[in-house]
Structure formats: C-alpha cells, structure tokens
C-alpha cells in the first residue's frame, strides 16, 4: 500500500459565509499538511487534495463531522507522494462554473451507481454524453459516447443542437468525478429533456467500483499524474501521438511555456522532441526541461502553503490554533 492518498470530492450544501469558511478550511489543510485545490462557494465545496494516509483520514473525518458536509463522498486513490505542488483554497461564485440557471439541490438527473450504469449503458435506448472538455475526452471516453468540442462546461448551451434529435432517448451524462453532471443534467432537464441520468461519482468511481468496463483510454485528472488508468476489464487506447500518430494514452503539457498545450505524445517523440508539440515549440528559448512526465507546475520559489491564509483579524494565524476555535 502506498503512503499517500489522493482525495476527490464535492458536495452541494449551502455555506452562509464562504469567506469565513475558506479561512477555516485553509487552516485545516495547513494543519494536516495537505496540498491541492479546494473551491468554497455559497452552494458548497469542490476539492481534490493529496497527503499522507493518516492526514487524509483526519481531513475526511473533520469534513463529515460538520453537519453541512456529513454526506460528502470521497473518491480515494493511492500515491507514492503528493500529487500537487501547492495549496489553493479559494472562494468562487460556483463550485463548478457554468452560469446555468439551475440548482442541483432542487432538480438534477437520476443518479446511477457504477454497477447500475454498467448494466444500463448498453441499452439501445441509452445515449452516453460526455460533459468534459475536449482535451479530457481526447485521451479517454466511454465506447460510443457523444462528445462535444468545448473548452468548458459554460459552452454546453452552444452544443445542445448536437443532441436535439435524442430527446426520446435515455440520456446518461458522465464526467471525471460527477460534479459537472449535477449541473449538466439539471440543464438538460430545464431544456425539456425528460429521461436524464448521470453517473454518480463519475469515471473515477466507476473504475474503482465496477472495473471501468468499456472506458477506452485513460482518464484526465487535474494533478501531477495528468492521466490515470480506469479500465481493468477491456482496456483500449483511443488517442494517438500528436506528432507521429502511433496509438498512445500518454498525455503531457507541451514543454514550451508559451504553448503549454495538452497533447498526447508517445515516449519516443517525447524524448526526440523534448516534450514539445511542434518544431517551433522545440526551439522556444524558454523551453522547460522535459523530465518524461510532461507536467510542469508553476514556479514555486516564493511560495509557501501559508500563502492565501489570512486570519479574520487580518494577521497570520498560529498553526497550533484549532480549526474549531
């Protein structure tokens, strides 16, 4: 068993004072030596963090001890070390930005647990719809799923005409961890679609609990790992190397900081072209050193996890202070 854990979670639960809670939550992460990203919004929490197993256990216990977050479900993976380089806890208007006039606490698609999804996905009246960004589904998606060429969920309304002819079908939406589908499925319902479902817990939970059957390629994740394998039953590669066209599920960021494109690049091309997507990028004078991972965190010379934490009195807080105080 690996010493670190990676937690992925979200919960829609009203937070009356997001700014105050952000400070408390940031302090909790500092006390537990966690790194990652957490969004605090009036509608709830959305987070992915990494830390030692005991620290992650304490984090989950603390969140669930709060009545607002008692029902939080965590997707838990193992890791050899931190999968993040920094800690960011931020207040935003939404925990996943959509601008849709919907409230998942009032209406959303019918939740399907992984095994229910596995049994239903091949029904001839079912259509799977991927709610992730184009660079995410480029490296992996469910067999036969409809995908949209969109950069983010806000663009979904622009693509509704692509599924307009499927109103008489059972629509099952899916995404990485389930959070986008809460609003995406609600939006479909608001647009007159009647039979709308969503994969509860997303691709990650499906892989963990149902073996990931029929998910081709790998799942894009927003940490140092870039992608993770999902399918333990009938894996297949759906993406090809951006440079040479050979099959590969290996996704990187272009080593040129001016480009930074998400691309699939095979091992050979990664080595031969210094982790770049084009010859122009290869000759960038500011080219980053390619270490084989294709993941480049932002410069951290002046960074410490304490950044961003400001006590309610406007001063740095003592880390020995309890989160409850």
Polypeptide structure, described:
Keywords: Oxidoreductase, Transferase, tRNA processing. It holds the Pfam family Rhodanese. There is one protein chain. With 325 residues, the protein is α/β, with parallel strands linked by helices. Helices cover 21% and strands 22% of the residues. The protein folds into three domains: 4-91, 2-Layer Sandwich (Alpha-Beta Plaits); 110-217, Oxidized Rhodanese, domain 1; 239-294, no CATH class. The chain contains eight helices and 14 strands. The strands form four sheets. A five-stranded mixed beta sheet has the order 4-1-3-2-5, sandwiched between helices. Strands 6-10-9-7 form a four-stranded parallel beta sheet. It has a three-stranded antiparallel beta sheet with strand order 8-11-12. Strand 9 (170-174), helix 5 (179-190) and strand 10 form a beta-alpha-beta unit. Helix 3 (114-120) packs across helix 6. The longest helix is centred in the first third of the chain and has 14 residues, at 18-31. The protein is globular. Mean pLDDT is 92; it is low at 311-325.
């Amino acid at each position: 068993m690996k010493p670190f854990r990676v937690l992925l979670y979200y919960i829609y639960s009203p937070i009356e004072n997001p700014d105050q809670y952000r400070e408390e939550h940031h302090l909790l992460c500092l006390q537990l030596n966690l790194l990652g990203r957490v969004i605090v919004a009036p509608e709830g929490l959305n987070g992915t963090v990494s830390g030692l197993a005991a620290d992650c256990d304490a984090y989950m216990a603390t969140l669930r001890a709060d009545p607002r977050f008692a029902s939080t479900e965590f997707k838990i993976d193992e890791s050899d070390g931190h999968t993040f380089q920094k800690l960011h806890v931020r207040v935003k208007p939404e925990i996943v930005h959509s601008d849709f006039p919907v409230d998942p606490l009032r209406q959303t698609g019918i939740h399907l647990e992984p095994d229910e999804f596995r049994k239903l996905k091949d029904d001839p009246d079912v259509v799977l719809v991927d709610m992730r960004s184009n660079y995410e589904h480029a490296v992996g998606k469910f067999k036969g799923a409809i995908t949209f060429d969109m950069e983010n969920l806000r663009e979904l309304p622009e693509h509704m005409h692509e599924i307009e002819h499927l109103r008489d079908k059972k629509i099952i939406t899916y995404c990485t961890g389930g959070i986008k589908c809460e609003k995406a499925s609600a939006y479909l319902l608001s647009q007159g679609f009647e039979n709308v479902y969503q994969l509860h817990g997303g691709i990650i939970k499906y892989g963990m609990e149902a073996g990931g059957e029929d998910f081709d390629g790998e799942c894009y994740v927003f940490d140092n790992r870039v992608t993770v394998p999902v399918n333990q039953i009938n894996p297949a590669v759906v993406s090809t190397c951006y440079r040479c066209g050979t099959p590969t599920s290996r996704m990187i960021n272009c080593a040129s900081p001016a480009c930074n494109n998400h691309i699939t690049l095979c091992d050979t091309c990664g080595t031969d072209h210094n982790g770049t997507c084009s010859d122009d990028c290869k000759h960038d004078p500011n080219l980053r050193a390619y270490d084989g991972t294709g993941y480049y965190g932002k410069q951290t010379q002046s960074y410490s996890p304490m950044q961003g934490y400001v006590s309610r009195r406007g001063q740095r807080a003592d880390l020995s202070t309890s989160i409850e105080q």
